[in-house]
Amino acid sequence: MAVTDTKDERIKETSRFRQALIRPELGGIVGTVAVFTFFLLFAFDSGMFAAQGVMNWGIVSAQFMIIAVGACLLMIAGEFDLSVGSMIGFAGMMIAVFGVVLAWPMWMAIIITFVICLMIGALNGFIVIRTGLPSFIVTLAFLFILRGFTIYIPQTLESKTIIGGIRDAAEGDWLAPIFGGKIGAPIFQWLGDAGIIGVFERGNRMGEPVVDGIPMMMIWALILIVFGHVLLTRTRFGNWIYASGGDAESARNSGVPVNQVKISMFMFTAFCATVFAVCQVMEFGSAGADRGLLKEFEAIIAVVIGGALLTGGYGSVLGAALGALIFGVVQQGLFFAGVESSLFRVFLGIILLGAVVLNTYIRRVITGER
Amino acid sequence: MAVTDTKDERIKETSRFRQALIRPELGGIVGTVAVFTFFLLFAFDSGMFAAQGVMNWGIVSAQFMIIAVGACLLMIAGEFDLSVGSMIGFAGMMIAVFGVVLAWPMWMAIIITFVICLMIGALNGFIVIRTGLPSFIVTLAFLFILRGFTIYIPQTLESKTIIGGIRDAAEGDWLAPIFGGKIGAPIFQWLGDAGIIGVFERGNRMGEPVVDGIPMMMIWALILIVFGHVLLTRTRFGNWIYASGGDAESARNSGVPVNQVKISMFMFTAFCATVFAVCQVMEFGSAGADRGLLKEFEAIIAVVIGGALLTGGYGSVLGAALGALIFGVVQQGLFFAGVESSLFRVFLGIILLGAVVLNTYIRRVITGER
Amino acid sequence: DDLTYILVSHAPDSDTWWNTIKNGIALAGDQVGVSVEYRNPPTGDIADMARIIEQAAASSPDGIITTLADFDVLQGPITAAVDQGIDVIIMNTGTPEQAREVGALMYVGQPEYDAGFAAGQRAAGEGVTKFLCVNHAIQQPTVGERCRGYADGLGIELGDAMMDSGTDPAEIKNKVLAYLSANPDVDGILTLGPVSADPTIAALQENGMAGDIHFGTFDLGEEIVKGIKDGTINWGIDQQPFLQAYMPVVILANWDRYGVLPGNNINSGPGFVTKDGLAKVEEFAGEFR
Amino acid sequence: MTTPIIQMKNIEKHFGSVIALAGVSVDVIPGECHCLLGDNGAGKSTFIKTMSGVHQPTAGEILFEGRPMHFHDPRDAMAAGIATVHQHLAMIPLMSVARNFFMGNEPVKKIAGISFFDRKLADDITMSEMQKMGINLRGPDQAVGTLSGGERQTVAIARAVHFGAKVLILDEPTSALGVRQTSNVLATIDKVRKQGVAVVFITHNVRHAMAVGDRFTVLNRGQTLGTAKRGEITPEELQDLMAGGQELATLEGSLGGTV
Amino acid sequence: MTTPIIQMKNIEKHFGSVIALAGVSVDVIPGECHCLLGDNGAGKSTFIKTMSGVHQPTAGEILFEGRPMHFHDPRDAMAAGIATVHQHLAMIPLMSVARNFFMGNEPVKKIAGISFFDRKLADDITMSEMQKMGINLRGPDQAVGTLSGGERQTVAIARAVHFGAKVLILDEPTSALGVRQTSNVLATIDKVRKQGVAVVFITHNVRHAMAVGDRFTVLNRGQTLGTAKRGEITPEELQDLMAGGQELATLEGSLGGTV
Ligand SMILES: Nc1ncnc2c1ncn2[C@@H]1O[C@H](COP(=O)(O)OP(=O)(O)OP(=O)(O)O)[C@@H](O)[C@H]1O
Ligand SMILES: Nc1ncnc2c1ncn2[C@@H]1O[C@H](COP(=O)(O)OP(=O)(O)OP(=O)(O)O)[C@@H](O)[C@H]1O
Ligand SMILES: [Mg+2]
Ligand SMILES: [Mg+2]
Fold first, then answer.
1. Residues 6+ apart with CB under 8 A from B4
2. Which of C165, C190, C223, D229 is least buried, going by the fewest C-beta atoms within 10 A?
């Protein structure tokens, strides 16, 4: 049997170091380092890196991470979902409608909301699969449909577009704290007492530490990232996700159940959006028709900054998480640094462009195009 | 030489009539008929089909048409532009800055604005071509960048974000009426006097016809549609547009200057957005930082309803114009029909879904997949 | 001393009305000699606004001026900021009671519902029986309160009188035209700010009902002032955003420097601006008015 | 002669208004290489796709090891021991060779009751299988996109051989290959046939077919022109059958008879 | 012997870290069919792409009709009379046959000083050219997507023949074709060659090459192994050259020498 040469004389050498460096997350890592360096230099004494400041950009980043994980897996599976933002608004409103307007027990409201949203996610996926339409169009339709209902329903029921009182309704519920609570209070109390982090100076919380626990939103972000990462890299389902996004037809011919994979990723995205919404309404106590506006873009941006390919088949959850971190740190950091807020968008656009150009370069190196 | 049989016995017959019917615009035609039938039945006596009512949905549709023509050609060329909405805001603001703040003659302000916007369009295209990134990402970046500047610039210069007085500044200008005027006033006066169209029965314009001319926006819509249609179907450049969107690599190998085609379509889209913006500021006399929000989606929706393929290479300008007409008629018609206005979004989503499913079916028939 | 105050609003970037606020704090900052910053959630998402208040608190300014667009959402972060030792003044939306509840020093502004209610009462006196409320920011709960107040002030059901108009001027104009031609018995219009008022003026000029139909609006702007002048608009409700921004900065600075504080909340509105005494309004519309 | 492992009886397949297969019957026998020949659009690919579970036949019956069988998707066929190399390769350029190799057939190991993808095992098998086919990878995580067309084809074949416990289907594996790669593929077919696997080999090239085929079936416009055994038919007759008759004679004359 | 129409001298082409061509020289002569052979990845497609203006060579010189020539893009090459059928067809499925046929070469007519695409002319020419190649279309506006692979290939060749005033380049036109279509293509090559057009014909199939070739160049790993004239070389020698030598002997033995 003919044996190909071990070395191909037509390939110029690339160093081992360069090889090791080149991975999907590289863009995200470089970006994270750059962003932190920047703010350490320009906003160090603004409180951005004190306990409260860290918690602030930490929680904003965690929010982005939650939706970015869903968007990332879905994007790797070759689709994307523009209805994430509307889904966030819709899910929050459903909780308010069930839990406050209809006064069901909160755990029931939460579970029903999850069921409804997962079904909408599945419907999204089902339509995409059955009609073969681009997910851009299908989910764009749902962007409008869900937002329309989010405005229409409370307006018809309560003639307002905001429904409050969720925190009161959730009082004593067993499920609600899993989304709205905080953990680690004793540790932070100790840190506060020991003077390591600041404490309130007056009011009815005098003496308590300014940061009194890790919000469940952060925990959820962590869980989802670990789950997504393990699913993608360590399970056979993960291989199917890559395959479905890389080339659905080939994957199908190789026996990958592409339709199920895509539909379940749409559902997972809906799940992440619902987690986001539930955490938000539990923390803030009200649902409004304006929640989640443009969050779909923010999720996609985070994922793309994190090195995933818009056309599917390539990306990493860790990268998406780093993308979300960059996004969160830049957004809050610009406030800390006192930059005129309308310029935030300009920065965002430029960072996005820079990140994708870098990521494209990295990907070309990996696939050997360059 | 082997001669293939004239008839292939393996193809079942399809009727000539069906063949003739099946064309990209069909979905748009069917939709238009359906929409008009619906409103004729349910909103006939609401004034929707009186002169004033027709002008009402006519002008809204014309607005959509102007941006839809640009989006349509760009989409057929295989790209799309999410920065259209921001471009509209930006262009309007530029006119205000040059014409009012800097007090340049209006014609100069308009021309300079066109030049700047066309250059931004070209830049969009250039980045897409050079980096090979999807236009989704590149134009998403510009969506943010342009909107940021649209807020930042007037804020810095004038400390306001809405600049008025454009109508006064345009008084007596030779170029401005081409965008902001109305034509055909004598005809409408005659129609009014003859009792063919209604006249005002009260208020300060009593006796004048309810419709006193065709706004230039409609004329622009007409010109752009005819131009786009002729360009696409009757010129060699039109063939190149189809080819570039159908398969850029193949087109390039066949000698089509794909890069130039794509860049010029980005510029044409920017041109349409600028026409939109100039007409708008001339009519309303002010430029605001919030103008054009979400217009990019509306343009894409109109084009897709009109039968174009999101992935390029297929579509028609007439279809896009019909899509815009459907969009405008539905939006305004719901008001005439007295439907709760927040449900408009829900309807829009459903129409979009229905239209693309129909269009996909038609396209499959054309390409013989079905 | 180097005092820093941060104003956090609930308005999206695109909302042009808030510009007066920005100018108000900038001017106050200059005059009083303190540094001021303006922050807002880019999309108007109030949950994002809560994060911004937390962020503002984390950067330890001397005071925060903020709106209470959604009491449920903002209560937590504002209370935390107060407890942390930061002085807070509530401006614009919210009510004096809510301001007290979150521990703010005072409230400067015009409670939305009350302003709408006052407008409704006045309109009722001027003969309005059926109205259209043009809402350009349907997703923002606070603005809609004005419509509810107006309806209640008139003593009629809101029903479908609140229109989701979007922000595109041509669409607003034509939606108003469509609504009016479909509902000829409407005899009053309420717009909620320049974004909806400007195209509505154009609409009324186009269908000849300008000056014929009762037209009230919230907030001022160049076109609104013109409209009031030529009789298209009966009155504009001026909540004097300039004061809402300017006063808190001055009050906070004096509180921090000398420990003095007015004993009461300040109602910056509702004031009805009519044809009389428009000169100054005209000059500074969109900038300080 | 052993009994057929797969019997395809009067298979029909319609796509909308196109009748791709109009009743085709073929038997596949273990240890034999069954060649499918035919002009473009004859329905060869469609036919083997019904065999490998990608398409469901519109009419007709499939017997697998004597029992009626309905493959609902390619996974069913794979589970039954049928492996296919499709004409348009089922390889995903952005994925690593190892991930591609095991796509749809990932080995799993249980850790704490949860099934994880056994990357180590997958990598080892991939490396050794590729070695056997004469391809030295930089590593198992090299992306398929960095391989040449011939190398990709080889990966696809190696994969099918590895998983093709009972039946191996190859759809024009040699059409884009050079001489060396071609002989490599033919040798592989020869080897697995000798191991008792049933091979279905689709080609346009009569000489390639003659080199390894035991039986030859010619398809024409969705119908079979009959099956012949090795030795019963000459290459020239096969060529004629494929081309549908006489019209070639004149041509061949002017071209030196070497088509 | 006429003078060469194209002389390619020491052409090199690098893609990033890949050296696809390491100095290849070839002459193309009017009225002759020049066959390019070689294994996968030898650089055949890359080479003809430098000839047709798709790629610019990294180093080396191209003489066209004796003068140094730099084709900046495929349009330049077309304008000079070089037409190419690429390996991966340059056909756009969603476009009609007529539009595809004239893609990049649209005939125009002036109306009121403005150039319009002359659809009528394009339709007529397309229909008659396709008729000549033996393909009956439903109409000139039938979408290419509705044609079979072989028919598409034929459209591409018909287009190239129509526009290939001086040089016609065919990159593996026969690899996916059935016997009938193949002989059709070979006959076409023969015909245009006789009209004095220079043909460059790439194939893996030595027999196809021998059927129409006047000269044979074998590429191997980006380098040329030399050019031979018809009659100077036997099919077996060519085969050996392509496969790179002896290792095949053993294989062929076991497979009956018919590869
Ligand atoms: N998914 C499909 N939808 C519609 N028609 C199809 C589909 N797949 C195949 N066909 C049609 O069925 C017929 C047979 O196609 P098939 O691919 O089986 O031919 P083939 O013998 O494999 O040809 P080739 O030698 O070119 O590979 C062709 O006319 C083809 O156009
Ligand atoms: N655009 C490109 N970027 C990077 N490498 C390329 C590119 N095009 C070709 N190559 C590489 O150049 C080499 C020669 O490729 P080429 O396509 O010319 O081979 P070929 O002789 O046509 O092979 P085949 O017979 O398979 O068509 C291969 O190693 C290929 O991977
Ligand atoms: Mg086939
Ligand atoms: Mg090649």
1. E134, E135, E136, E151
2. D229
- How far apart are the CA of E203 and the centre of ligand 2, in A? 15
The span from the CA of C83 to the CA of C87, in Å, is 9
B79: tokens are 């790209």
How far off is chain E from D79, nearest CA to CA, in Å?
Answer: 31
Per-residue DSSP letters for chain E? -PPPSEEEEEEEEEETTEEEEEEEEEEE-TT-EEEEEE-TTSSHHHHHHHHTTSS--SEEEEEETTEE----SHHHHHHTTEEEE-SS----TTSBHHHHHTTT---EEEETTEEEE-HHHHHHHHHHHHHHTT---S-TTSBGGGS-HHHHHHHHHHHHHHH-SSEEEEESTTTT--HHHHHHHHHHHHHHHHTT-EEEEE-S-HHHHHHH-SEEEEEETTEEEEEEETTSS-HHHHHHHHHTSTTHHHHHHHHTS--
Q: Which helix (H) or strand (E) holds D13?
A: strand D6-15
Residues in chain B predicted with pLDDT less than 50, given as ranges, are 1-9
In this prediction, residues E253-258 reach a mean pLDDT of 47
| Ligand 1 center from residue D163 Cα (angstroms) | 26
List beta partners, residue D186. Answer: none
Question: Who lines ligand 1 at CB under 6 A?
Answer: B 369; D 15, 18, 20, 38, 40-46, 87; E 148-149, 176
Pairwise CB contact (< 8 Å): C171 & B331: yes
Q: How far apart are the first and last CA of chain A?
A: 31
Query: At what angle are helices B51-76 and B295-305 packed, to 10 degrees?
Result: 90
Nearest to B262 by CA among B66, B79, B131, B135: B79
For residue D241, the one-letter residue type is: L
A247-283: string of b/e by CB count within 10 Å (b at 16+)?
A: bbebbbbbbbbbbebbbbbbbbbbbbbbbbbbbbbbb
Residue A14's pLDDT band (cuts 50, 70, 90): low
Chains E and C touch (3+ CB pairs under 8 A): no
Token pair 């009016």 is found at: C180
> How far is C-alpha A369 from the geometric centre of its chain's CA atoms?
30
Q: How many pairs of residues across D and E have Cβ atoms under 8 Å apart?
A: 129
Map tokens 């208040």 to a residue: C53
> DSSP assignment of A24-48, as one string?
TTHHHHHHHHHHHHHHHHHSGGGTT
All structural domains of chain E = 6-89+163-255 (3.40.50.300)
How far is residue A316's CA from residue A263's CA, in Å, rounded to a whole number? Answer: 19
User: Given its phi and psi angles, is residue E28 left (phi above 0), alpha (psi -120 to 50 degrees) or beta?
Assistant: beta
Q: Which of E232, E228, E168, E179 is nearest to E208 (CA)?
A: E179
Q: Residue D48 belongs to what H/E stretch?
A: helix D44-51
What CA dihedral angle connects E171, E177, E179 and E181, to 10 degrees? -80
Interhelix angle E248-255/D179-194, nearest 10 degrees: 50
Identify whether the C-beta of residue B342 lies closer than 8 Å to the C-beta of residue B57: no
| Residue B174 tokens, joined | 């030779």
User: What confidence score (pLDDT) does residue A242 get?
Assistant: 94
What ipTM is given for this predicted complex? 0.88
**pLDDT exceeds cutoff 60 at D259:** no
Q: What is the CATH number of domain A51-176+210-367?
A: 1.10.3470
Q: Which of A:2-31 have CB within 8 Å of D?
A: 2-6
Q: Among positive and negative, which fits the CA dihedral A221, A227, A230, A233? A: negative
The SS3 call for residue C178 is: helix
β-partners of residue D111 are: D114
Per-residue pLDDT at D164: 74
- Residue D258: its pLDDT value, please? 43
> Do B305 and B28 touch, CB atoms closer than 8 A?
yes
The answer to whether residues D221 and B10 touch, using CB atoms and an 8 Å cutoff, is: yes
How many other C-beta atoms are found inside a 10 Å radius of the C-beta of residue A172? 9
